[in-house]
Structures are given as C-alpha cells and as structure tokens.
C-alpha cells in the first residue's frame, strides 16, 4: 500500500475520533496534526484504496467521512463508494435478520445468548450503526449449553466447520465453534472471549450477569456490558492477529471515546482476569496504528504494569513469531487447575479425535503431531521467547 | 386522525443520502432516497399525517392539497411494504 493510500486509509479508520481518547495521556507528545489531503486520489491509487477499505471492513467509516466532507473525492468516487456501502448495508441487514432468527430459536430452546462484536458494537458503540460493518454473527453461549445450541442449529440447517477435538472439550476448554448457515452466512458460537491462557482467566458468569440489551428489529438482544466489552475489544485487537486489524483497533479507540464504562470496575476486571498486558497492547495499538493517544486512568494503570515472563510468553503465543495452537496450549497449562485438568486438556490438544485431525491436517495422528512439533521445535531453536517488540520495550523501560 | 410511525421490526441503515431497509417477512430490500429519505428522518418520532403534510409543505413550498395527492399513496405503499405502521384514531 503506497503512502497516499495509507494516509487515506488511516483517515478513514480514525474518522470521527479526536487525537486523544479516554482522557489525558501521561507523557503524550504534542499532537502534530498532519495536513489533511485536499486532492482526491488518482484512479490507480483509488482502486487500491477501495480494495483496502473493503478488506478492512471500513466501508461504513468511508461513507461517513465522505458524507462529512472530510475526504476529498471526485463525484465518480463518491458514487462508487456509495454503491459499495449500500451493497454492504444489504448484507448487514441480511445478517441481522439471521441473528434474530438464531437468537429466537435458541431462546425457545431455553439457551441464553449474548451478542458479541458486529451487530452489538454497531448499535451500542458507534454513533450510527451504518459506520460499523461486519461479515458474520458472533454469539456467546453458556458452556453447559454449547452442545444443545449446536444441535438446535443443526436442525435449522447449520453445519459446523470443524468438529470438536474430543467430547467435552468445547464446554470445558474451547473458545467456540464456527458454523455455516443454510444461506452461506457465518455464525461464530463462543464459550469464552479468547482461546488459551487469557480465555481461561475470564469469569464467564460475569459476562452474562453484567450483560446489557440493545434494540434490533423490535426485539431486545443481550450484549456485553460496558466494562466486559472494554476488555473484549482489547482482547480482540491485541491478541486476534499478529498484524492488528484496523477495525479491531478502531473498536478499542471507539470504546475509549464512548466512555460508557465505569473506570474502577474495568480496573477490577483487568486485575481479576490478569489482563494488564493485553489492555496495554490494545491502547498502544491505538497510537501506533491509528495515531490516537489513549489516555486516562486505565491507560496510566496498565502502562505502570511490568509484564512477567509468563505474561510475555502468553501474549507471544497469540501474536509473536512462534504463535500457534501448540504454543497456546503450552502457555495455557499454568492457568488450569490440577493435574487431571491439565492432562485432559493436553490429551485433547495433542491427540484429538480422528475427524478433527482429518479436517485440519488431512492425516492421522503423526501428521497432527508433526504439525504441533514443528512449532515447538522452532520455539526451542529460537532460544525461547521473542516477545512482541512493544512488550520487550516495555520490559526494558523504554516506553 | 392518522398517525405514521416506523415499524419497529424493520431493519435499516442510512447509506449516504439513502436509507436501505429490510422489512419483516419480506425478502426484497427497499431503498429510499430524496424526499423518501427525508420523510424517513422526520418519522424518527411518530407524526400525525397533517403535521407531516405541513412540514413538507413548508419545506418544498407546495400547497398541502397538491402535496397530499402524492404523499398519501407514497406512505401507503411504504406501509404495504412493511416499513411504516399507520395508526388511525377517532
């Protein structure tokens, strides 16, 4: 992506936000406002820009920036962006109708649901739901209801993409499962907010107990409360991908800007879920990716935290050079209670049922083992952990 | 007295100057632009037909009788599409 395109993409990703969110940032540099572009992009750059925006799911923010005259575009570009957004809106409405059907079906079966991310953020976190685009639906379910939910949805034509590693794994250790609907829509069912060590520290009952509701299609659906949502956006942005997604980082900045959370309650959750490094990384990404300073008491508290080696290894297992399923499994072990629990988890991860091995590695036990061993051998050759750059800098006191 | 309001079951989004909507029990998407999108914005809160007529008449500087020959069929069509609800009271 060339420089002018990158500048336009960043402008879109941060549209509607001030240079600082969450409160004054300690030690923040003076914000140097770059001159906004005055000329529209030329055709080749516009094509790249539009493809990048669509890939990053920023069509809603692009439309809003154009509507507010904060992005120079030609009449033709305005029309093209408008058509892209209208198409995306059509998909969103289809997804929302599916979401209502799914929630209705599960509720009739007595299964509690909490909507995560997409539709919930669009209606609760952004000033206008058309700003926040999504491509699938995400639902949090109680672990004990996970299999009942999948059975209900199978009856409605949904197919699970990957089988459960071993009986009971989903309800005890798993993050969730992805299903494909009869109309080709994707539905992610979650038991927790993130797989592995950080997911094991989350108080799952709290996610349901503190849920709020939002209005959709004449019904009230549950969503995470402002405080658990605060942590969820940080988990997603900080641990979701080694190269952070623009929209995920925007969600962090948007939640900070919205300030719907109770600061003390968020700080309590960060302590209880042992997540200061994750929140710190989420806030750092606001600065490095969007050039927005995240400040205020939460930013100050997590900035003062010095991550332990175990924390660094845990973060590395998600976004470090040697990230992977095997490293996540190993990083999870300290957070499992008792030898029996650890062995059950290891057994399911190291020797899953044949159906999953076939789906993932196309072979038997040896192919599965080789897959995991490659990651671990690579980790040993590397002489241990290589923490993400920003975290190692934090340990050295350079941030 | 006729009052118009958005059907709360409607799924919709603003998209630039347009409004895209998906009505309950209907598979086809609907789209409003221009005056249609303006009426949609005005109906953020329920409005009596006479009040809507007055606002639009002032906005477009048109006699209400003339405007109503187009407005009423338009609103009725939106009602039939499942986008609006018409409440009639004595």
Give descriptors for this structure.
heterodimer; A: 399 residues; alpha/beta; five-stranded mixed β-sheet; two-stranded parallel sheet; 8% strand; globular; disordered C terminus; B: 90 residues; alpha+beta; three-stranded antiparallel β-sheet
Structural overview:
The complex is a heterodimer of chains A (399) and B (90). By secondary structure, chain A is α/β, with parallel strands linked by helices. Chain A is built from 20 helices and 9 strands. Chain A has helices at residues 3-13, 43-55, 59-67, 75-108, 118-124, 146-155, 169-172, 197-200, 204-209, 226-239, 246-258, 263-272, 276-290, 296-303, 309-319, 325-332, 338-350, 354-361, 365-381, 389-395; strands at 20-21, 114-116, 137-140, 159-160, 176-180, 186-190, 212-216, 219-223, 293-294. The radius of gyration of chain A is 22 Å and the shape is globular. Chain B is an alpha+beta fold and 90 residues long. Helix content of chain B is 41%, strand content 29%. Chain B is built from 3 helices and 6 strands. In chain B, strands 5-1-6 form a 3-stranded antiparallel sheet. In chain B, strands 2-3-4 form a 3-stranded antiparallel sheet. In chain B, strand 3 and strand 4 form a beta hairpin. The longest helix of chain B has 17 residues, at 64-80. Classes of the chains: A alpha/beta (399), B alpha+beta (90). The interface between A and B is medium-sized, with 20 and 18 residues.
Low-confidence stretches of chain A: 382-399
**If helices are DSSP runs of H or I spanning 4 or more residues, what is the number of helices of chain B?**
3
Rounded average pLDDT of chain B: 94
Mean pLDDT of chain A: 87
Question: Into which percentage range does the β-strand content of chain B fall?
Answer: 25-35%
Number of DSSP strands of chain B?
A: 6
Gap between N and C termini of chain A: 28 Å
Overall, the morphology of chain B is globular
Strand content bin of chain A: 5-15%
- Say how many strands of chain A there are: 9
How do the strands line up in the largest sheet of chain B?
5-1-6
Distance between the termini of chain B: 6 Å
Strand order of the largest sheet of chain A: 2-3-6-5-4
| N-to-C order of helices and strands of chain A | HEHHHEHEHEHEEHHEEHHHHEHHHHHHH
Profile the largest sheet of chain B.
Answer: 3 strands, antiparallel
Alpha-beta classification of chain A: alpha/beta
Indicate the overall shape of chain A. Answer: globular
- Gyration radius of chain B (Cα, Å) is 13 Å
**Oligomerization status of the protein chains:** heterodimer
| Alpha-beta content class of chain B | alpha+beta
**Biggest interface pair, counts:** A-B, 20 and 18 residues
């Amino acid at each position: 992506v060339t420089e002018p395109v990158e500048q336009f993409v960043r402008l879109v990703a941060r549209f509607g936000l001030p240079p600082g969110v969450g409160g004054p940032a300690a030690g923040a540099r003076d914000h140097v406002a770059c001159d906004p572009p005055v000329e529209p992009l030329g055709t080749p750059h516009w094509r790249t820009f539009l493809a990048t925006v669509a890939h990053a799911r920023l069509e809603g923010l692009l439309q809003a920036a154009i509507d507010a005259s904060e992005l120079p575009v030609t009449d033709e570009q305005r029309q093209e962006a408008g058509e892209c957004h209208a198409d995306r809106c059509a998909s969103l409405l289809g997804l929302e109708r599916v979401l209502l059907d799914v929630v209705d079906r599960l509720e009739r079966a007595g299964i509690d649901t909490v909507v995560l991310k997409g539709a919930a953020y669009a209606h609760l976190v952004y000033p206008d739901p058309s700003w926040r685009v999504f491509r699938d639906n995400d639902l949090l379910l109680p672990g004990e209801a996970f299999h009942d939910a999948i059975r209900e949805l199978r009856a409605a034509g949904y197919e699970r993409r990957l089988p459960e590693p071993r009986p009971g794994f989903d309800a005890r250790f798993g993050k969730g499962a992805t299903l494909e609907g009869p109309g080709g829509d994707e539905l992610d069912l979650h038991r927790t907010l993130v797989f592995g060590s950080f997911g094991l520290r989350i108080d799952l009952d709290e996610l349901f107990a503190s849920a709020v509701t939002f209005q959709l299609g004449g019904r009230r659906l549950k969503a995470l409360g402002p405080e658990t949502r605060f942590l969820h956006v940080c988990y997603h942005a900080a641990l979701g991908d080694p190269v952070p997604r623009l929209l995920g980082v925007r969600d962090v900045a948007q939640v900070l800007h919205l300030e719907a959370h109770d600061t003390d309650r968020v700080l309590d959750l960060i302590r209880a879920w042992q997540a200061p490094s994750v929140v710190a990384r989420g806030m750092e990404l606001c600065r490095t990716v969007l050039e927005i300073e995240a400040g205020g008491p939460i930013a100050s508290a997590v900035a003062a935290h010095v991550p332990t080696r175990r924390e660094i290894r845990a973060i590395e297992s998600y976004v470090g050079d040697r990230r992977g399923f095997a490293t996540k499994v190993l990083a999870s072990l300290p957070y499992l209670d008792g030898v029996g629990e650890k062995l059950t988890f290891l057994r399911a991860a190291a020797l899953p049922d044949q159906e999953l091995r076939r789906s993932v590695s196309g072979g038997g036990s040896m192919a599965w083992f080789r897959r995991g061993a490659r990651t671990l051998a690579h980790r040993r050759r590397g002489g241990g952990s290589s923490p993400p750059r920003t975290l190692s800098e934090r340990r050295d006191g350079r941030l | 007295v006729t009052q118009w309001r958005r059907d709360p079951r409607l799924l919709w989004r603003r998209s630039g100057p347009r409004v895209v909507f998906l009505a309950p029990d209907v598979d086809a998407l609907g789209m409003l632009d221009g005056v249609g999108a303006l009426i949609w914005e005005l109906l953020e809160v329920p409005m009596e037909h006479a009040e809507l007529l007055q606002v639009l008449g002032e906005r477009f500087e048109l006699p209400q009788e003339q405007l109503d020959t187009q407005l009423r069929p338009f609103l009725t069509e939106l009602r039939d599409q499942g986008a609006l609800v018409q409440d009639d009271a004595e």
